[in-house]
Sequence to fold (213 residues):
Amino acid sequence: MTTLIISGGDIEEEFLKIFIKKQKIDKIIVADKGLEILNKINLIPNYIIGDFDSVCESILNKHKEKDVEILKLNPEKDYTDTHMALKLAIELKSNQIYILGALGKRMDHAIANIHILKEALDNNISCKIVDKNNEIELITSGTNELKNSEYKYISLIPLTTNVTGITLKGFKYLLNDATLEIGHSIGVSNEIISDKAEIIIDTGILIMIKSKD
Fold:
C-alpha cells in the first residue's frame, strides 16, 4: 500500500496535482496545516492528524462533515504532527510512503522530518520526502541500486556518526571501501554518469538527496 503524507511546509499547488496523478496513492494522511493545500485542489484525505494549532478552523470544520477520520493530538506531545502521521502510515501497513510539505521555512521541522525517516527504515518501509526539486531518503547496509533520472545531483550525507565500506559505481566521483563521517561535506553534489549506479554500504546510514539543480 502506498501512503501519501501531506505536511504543513512548502508545497507548490501544481506540483502536488502532478505528483498525485503520477503516483498510485492508496491512502492520504494530512498533518495539521497540510489540510489547507489539499483543500485548495479539492481533494479529501483519508485521515487528518494533528493538534490543529495551525490549520484554518473553518477548513477543518468542513472536513468534519465528510467521511474522514480525524485524530486530534494533545498540543503538549513528544512527537511532531508529521511524525505522528508517519507512525499512522506505518500502523496502516504501508510499504511505500511519500511525504510532501516536509521542507520549508522552519529548518527545525525540516531537519526533524529527515530524521524521522529512520523510523520507516527501521520497519523496512520505503519512505521519501519529495518536493519540486528534491527527493530525500535514507539508505543503509547492502547494495542500493539507482537509475539515471531527472535528478542531476546525488548527495550522500552521514546520518550515523560513521558510515563505513562505501563503494560507488557509475558515479562521476568514485569511492572504494570509504568511510564518511559526520562533519564533512565530501559526499555532496555527485553525479550519475551511467544508466545505472550502485551505492554499496557496509555499516551505518546515509541521507541520500537527489536534486534537480
Notes: The mean pLDDT is 94. Helices lie at 13-22, 34-40, 57-64, 81-91, 107-115, 117-122.
